[in-house]
Amino acid sequence: MRAEKPIRVAALVDLPRSPEAGGHVKCWERLAEAAADAQLPLDLTVYFSGRHRTEVLGPGARLAHLPPLFSTSQLKFLPYVPDHTDLAPYHPRLARELGAYDVIHTTDAFFAFAKTAEGVSRRRGIPLTTSFHTDTPSYTRIFTRQTIEARFGASWPAKKLIDDWQLPERQGRRMDQRLVQHVRRCAFVAATRAEDHALAESILGRSRVGHLRLGVDKRLFGPHRADRARIEAELCLPKDRILVLFVGRLDVGKNIHTLVDAIAALRAEGVPLHLITAGVGPAEADIRKKLGSAATIAGFVLPCELARLYASVDLVALSSEVEIRSMVGVEAMASGCPVLVSKKSGVAELFDDTPAMRVVDSGAAAWAEALRQTAACAPSRAAMRAAALDYSRRCLAPWREVLDEDLYALWREASQAPGATELIA
Q1: Whole-structure pTM over 0.70, yes or no?
Q2: What is the CATH number of the domain that holds 341?
Q3: Is residue 1 part of a domain?
Q4: Mean pLDDT along residues 390-409
Q5: Which residue of 27, 59, 84, 352 has the fewest C-beta atoms within 10 A of its own C-beta?
Q6: In a domain, 266, yes or no
Q7: 256-269 and 284-291 helices, crossing angle to 10°
């Protein structure tokens, strides 16, 4: 198929790559790898933030890195930033390179890469497309509040900023408005959540909004990776423990404290739960303090080892209330692992409300009750495990299929649509 002139696409991920990077970065690494092997008439370059270099994956795919001009890492007053990005209003080097592409695809609406893409698209008439990956407005509310509380504690300035001036909410609304502005400049949009579909369709119309799935590598993630006895031996765990796995950043944004409080309460009642965390973040000390030997904090876990954990533990706890897409959910389903998931996040809806997922209301008490009931009923966990494997077999797609059917089809339409660039003005 590469005999056909390839569509040149630049996908912009304004985040640094690292082994510890989150699902946004990992998603685009997997898509680029799929493009390298897909034999599509596609030439894909995924841009990340970082030291300038280019990694060629194949004849039709590469990973490029451009240094940030004003990274959030320079803002030393911030107590914690989960992922650093570029706050500059414009990136000249990126702008020069984007002129060589047929389609520019953004993966956020807020930072230097996206803002630069808007300008290049407008000036050069290059179609702009986007996809939703991170609920930045909600994270803005969470981390604005955390920053205020870290600097001012419970003092009157903190109460003034949070309760009276409602600074976290105002900052979140500002990001909401910015997202709408960006979508208006796009020719086509790919969305996953129903609410993101609704937002994009209200701006662009249904015909210009496609659906974006999350892919999974079933050779890596699957029930064949189960290794319970070895996991127990490596972690020095008694055989009577109910193993609960948390995957992601150990921070307030992922709602880890609610999960830890719930497990601590159940441990005090004698429920034999043991928490395993795969990820890094500032909540590590709090987890150790509250759970002690009832927690194994594994830090960063290689994908092959993470696959063993998914397939071997009793359940995964997806406590985050702010999710657009969930690689953890996909990988858990593929591994046949039951999942407890926050109702507020809406993740269960992304998986068609499969019985492999149990939806949990907000708060430590609700999580404690859900964990108590799930831990006490082995037949229920077995039924959830069977439902997960059935869902995986029927519904989970490989990354190459996601690239071909969800993104390449959208990029091709954007590059060929008559007057598509006029929609961007």
Answers
A1: yes
A2: 3.40.50.2000
A3: no
A4: 96
A5: 352
A6: yes
A7: 10
